[in-house]
Every structure is written in structure tokens, then in C-alpha cells.
Amino acid sequence: MSGPRIALLGFSIECNRFAPPAGPEDFSTRCWLRGDALLSDARSDAPQALGEMPGFVARMDETGPWQPRPLMLAMAEPNGPVDHALFLSMMEEWRERLRTLRGQVEGAYAVLHGAGLTTVLDDPEGALQALVRSELGEVPFICSYDLHANVSDSNVALNDAFVGYRTNPHLDMRERGAESADLLRRLLAGERFLRAHRRLPIVAPTVSLLTAQGPYAEVINLGQERAAADPRIVNVSVMAGFAYGDTPFNGLCAVVTATHQGAADALADELAAASWERRHRFVAALTSLEEATRRALASDVPLAFADVADNPGGGGRGNTMWILEAFHRAGVEGAVFGVIHDPALAIEAHRLGTGARFEARFNRDSGQDPFARPFAAEAEVVALSDGRVAGRRGIFKGTTMQLGRTARLRLGGIEVVVIEGRTQCADPAFLEHLGIDIGAARCVVVKSRGHFRGGFDEFFDHERIVEVDAPGLTSPILSRFPWQKLPRPVLPLDSETTR
Ligand SMILES: [Zn+2]
What we know:
Pfam family, one: MlrC_C
Radius of gyration: 22 Å
Bound molecules: zinc ion
Function: Involved in peptidolytic degradation of cyclic heptapeptide hepatotoxin microcystin (MC).
Cofactor: Zn(2+)
Shape: globular
Mean pLDDT: 97
Organism: Sabulicella glaciei
Structural class: alpha/beta
Strand content: 15-25%
Largest sheet: 9 strands, mixed
Oligomer: single chain
Number of helices: 14
Low-confidence stretches: none
Protein name: Microcystinase C
């Protein structure tokens, strides 16, 4: 064996301050891999891990000899803050594994979503980065982030290159992993990188942060144009942040990695100014539930309705009933709803079997959840599955998903896919594997804020997507939340905000 020895690790979860805490099962059901299992997953055809680690490993494999030192990678569906005791036990495990590598590695790569919280910490990623530095010393260290990262000063200071996604939906995860590998190779060859970081008092609603069009796309594109024209610029990451993290360092920011400090500073300043110029365009424009119901009844063309306020991909529980209830009451025909998280109902449907008719009682165990209003309707079990689905399109393409026990129910003219697990409906395969023909539906309602766009784009273009204003943990109407830690004043919450 020859080539540089590289430590591999990661911690990836997006945490909504207002959602219930995440526990160990939230990681173990998605992706929690140690040692050789981390590496073999990254090299497999259908990894459990999202794209960064597989992209990094593939690029390192292509670009010369190296010796991977896989430690631990823990990823979960977005949720509430991670139980702090669980995070401490993870830190202890990373510490032990890093300690055995002290003086034994030439570099490190970490996959960090960047919008994590614990029930105690606002910046668990910063704590993990500090641990890597303290155990491994000043070896080249690269971290990659989701563009929804809330970027603390430590997140920028404690690594040598800062690599953030550039697409929303996130279709460039593998590319950013590969880019991280290329930058690590450059550092190993002796280059040194510097960084600049500018944060703005803009906490943008998630729906205003698409990268196909709109203000965020324009700033990202400007950064990429400048990077292409200046060889001193190594990476440009315009990070939108995740409002519901509710941290003191929330705010849209530009992070520039460069070989020259002046070049990094100048470009970061330019991108901050370009973002500020567009500040009044980072707003949500949603459709009321009444109007959405009217369009579902009357539209001549198939439509997709996004339940943006109950997005499991932002910590939502995937179980609110406002749209289903309204469409059912109005007698909407030819609608498909996916995917509703209701373990008790999914398990009951499996017990009753295909063909059974029963009263489907949603949210029977909703407990303290203020958004999980019960709803009941006559239903038929049309199809069942164990919920192991191969991601076909969009952010989950090529990955292996585990939805838990899954049932397709028919409620009058509406088909509903109910799952035991909790995940956002970002991939058509979640519906198709139960025999649903999405192309034949008059409307599709998804529990997803925006990642469904990368999966359902072959059925619905931008003009046929309706973002519905219903209550929920991920409502883009930010004035509805009891913010604790956001820096104030901030746009769009406080109109008097200045730079
Ligand atoms: Zn994201």
C-alpha cells in the first residue's frame, strides 16, 4: 500500500429547533457506518450514504494511490436537535478512532451537513472539527456542507477548504465530494488555501432558495463566473442557511476559499453586496389552502402540490392532514398523496392485508404534536411493501432507501401512500413501487419543500407546482415561529434591518 493516508468521517443532520429530538434510531435507520463498512458502502452501487462520501472516495480512487482510514459516518433524516448524550457518545467514538491515527495520517475529509444542533449545542459540527484538529494536528482537512448549513466562524476557521453544495434540490452531492478530493490532493501537493466569510442579516424562507431561478441562483452563478475567471479562487460557496435551526449565526453567507487572501476577501465582499441588493426577493409566495383546493378541482392540466410546511426534509413529521382533509372533503378525484408518516396506520394496513376495507384513522397516537390533527376516512388497502426502495431520480437517486412498512390506500378518489418511517417524498419511486402511475394522476401532493422538484421534474415543470400554505413545523411564513436565538433584526422578519 502506498499514497497518503486519509481519515474519513462525517456527521450529517439538519435540525429544526422546534421539532422533537433525534435519537439513535434516526441515524441507524438511515446511515450509521463505521470502519471498513463506511468504505465499502461508499464504493457500492447503491450506498446508504448520500453522495458526498461516495463521490470523494471514487475521485480519490481515480486520481492516484491513497490509503483510506474510515472512522465513522452518521447521517439522519432532518429532525429536531440531536439528543446531547447521544452526540457525546459519538464524539467519544470519533475521539478514540482519531487518537489511533495521530501521526498516522496525512489528511482528513469530513462530510458535515452544517445545520446540526444538539439539545445543548448550537454548533456540533464546530465541536467535531475542533476534535479533528486537536487529535490530528494541522494536517490538510477538508469539509463539505449542505447549502442549508448555518455557518459559524469555527466552521470556516477549522478546515483548509470549505465546500458547499451549489444546487437546490441537491443534485451535486457527488460532485462536491469529488471536488473535495481534488482540493485535498492539491493541499497534499503543498498548496495552501485561505478563506473569507461574510454573513448577512438575511434568513431566507426555504422556498425562496431555488437554484434554477431566482435571487439565490443569481448570486451562486455570479460566484461561479468569478471563480472561472480567476485561478486564485479555489471554491465559492454561497450558503443560504436553514432558518429553523434558530442559531445566533443564522444568515445567508458567502465563503470563498482561495490561494490569495485579497482575492478571497474581494469576492466575498462582492457576493455579499450582490445578495444584499436582492434582499427583498427572499420571500415566500404561497397559495392558500382554499385556492389550492379550487385548483385541484378545476385544473385542466395535472398539478403538483407541495405541502412545504410539513417537510420531513426540514424536520417536519410528515403527518399533517390539512391538505388531505380539504381535498377529500371537496371530492377531488385522481389525486395521489405521498408520503404520509403514520406507523400505526401502516402497520394496521399490513395486518389487514391487500383488498381489506376499513376506517383509516390517521394520527391516532399523535400525543403532544400540535400539528398532527386526527383524520379518519373509509379506505381500501390497494398494495403493500416492505419499503425497501431503490432511489430512481433526484437527491436519492442511486441510494437504497428504507421507508419501513408501506401501504397504498384508496380513500374515494384519492390514493394515499402511508409509511412507517419518516422521510420526504423526493423520489417518484416511493409511489411507483406500489404500482402508482404518476403520469396518470390529476394531481400529486407531496410532503416535501423542494427536493421533490429533482425527482418529479419529468412529470411537473416549475409552472405546474403549487406551494401550499398550511400549518406546520417547516412553514415558510417565518413570523409564525417563537424564535429564541436568531440574530435580530433580520430580513424578512424585521423590515428595519440594515447591513
Ligand atoms: Zn439542504
